[in-house]
Amino acid sequence: MAAVIPAVTKISPRIIRILGCNPGIMTLQGTNTYIVGTGKRRILIDTGDADVPQYINHLKSVLNYEKFDLAHIFITHWHHDHIGGLSDILNEFKEKTKHCQIWKYPSCKDEINKNERIELLKNGQEFAVEGATLRVHHTPGHTDDHVVLHLLEDNVLFSGDCILGEGTAVFEDLYDYMHSLNEIAELKSAVILPGHGNVIQDPMEKIKFYIAHRKQREEQIIEFLNSHRNETFNEADLVKNIYEDLPQNLSKAAQNNVGHHLMKLLREQKVMKINDGWQAKNVNEVKSR
What we know:
With 289 residues, the protein is of the alpha/beta class. The protein has two domains: 8-201, Metallo-beta-lactamase, Chain A, CATH 3.60.15.10; 211-288, Winged helix-like DNA-binding domain superfamily/Winged helix DNA-binding domain (Arc Repressor Mutant, subunit A). The protein contains eight helices and 14 strands. The protein has a seven-stranded mixed sheet with strand order 1-2-3-4-5-6-7, covered by helices on one side. Strands 8-9-10-11-12 form a five-stranded mixed sheet, with no helix packed on it. β11, α4 and β12 (191-194) form a beta-alpha-beta unit. α4 runs antiparallel to α5 and α6 (235-242) crosses α7 (251-267). It is elongated. The N and C termini lie far apart (49 Å). It comes from Psylliodes chrysocephalus. Residues 30-196 form the Metallo-beta-lactamase domain. Keywords: Hydrolase, Metal-binding, Zinc. GO terms for molecular function: hydrolase activity; metal ion binding; RNA endonuclease activity; single-stranded RNA binding. InterPro entries: LACTB2-like_MBL-fold (IPR047921), LACTB2_WH (IPR041516), Metallo-B-lactamas (IPR001279), RibonucZ/Hydroxyglut_hydro (IPR036866), Sec-metab_biosynth-thioest (IPR050662), WH-like_DNA-bd_sf (IPR036388).
């Protein structure tokens, strides 16, 4: 059973979590947005979904009670449940966002960057407000523009959708995603505050689980293809043979997942694509390269 997450939680003297009030299959209890800093000008990480008055009311209560303006808004990636509420926030809090800078990493999804106030992040940039310094790390994989934000004072990582408080994350590019997980592990953060789900108190254990889970699925695919050499299988075939007791309504998602694994393996020259199917790469051919 999913943990209950309050609408507003003061996680530490520097961090307030405000739940996006948009629960769902993909968003879990809802999108976590975070206020960071201790002074009169603070940072907001992510903005939740569009058209969620309940979230706007919770944000308003925090802004008024804590008596601060927004210096920066960071969008961890282009998905609607993280950037969708931006216009609502800017319209509702004109005075408190008058001098606010809005930041997001560049994306190939050009249509997402319509807001002319959005400025483009660079990997390694640092931003400081009273009581908080955030360092930007580009972590593609979930999306091409995904970033995590490292709070240097407390060694806390805001992980967006790269790492979730419950379950495992989806991704656009598994090769990049695995690389990003390893980069996050190198940060050795004390705590992870995810874009969905509850606080992660043991980051290394969670990261190791994510990496092991993906490697296990990859090994299953390679083992199956190796045991059926010279036969061609599509994603649906592989799902039927690899996933046990998979509910029918999750079949398409599983096929998509397997497809990402296959694209990673193709990039690593471990499989080959033949028309609409896949085969294991000849071991001797791989070694000769």
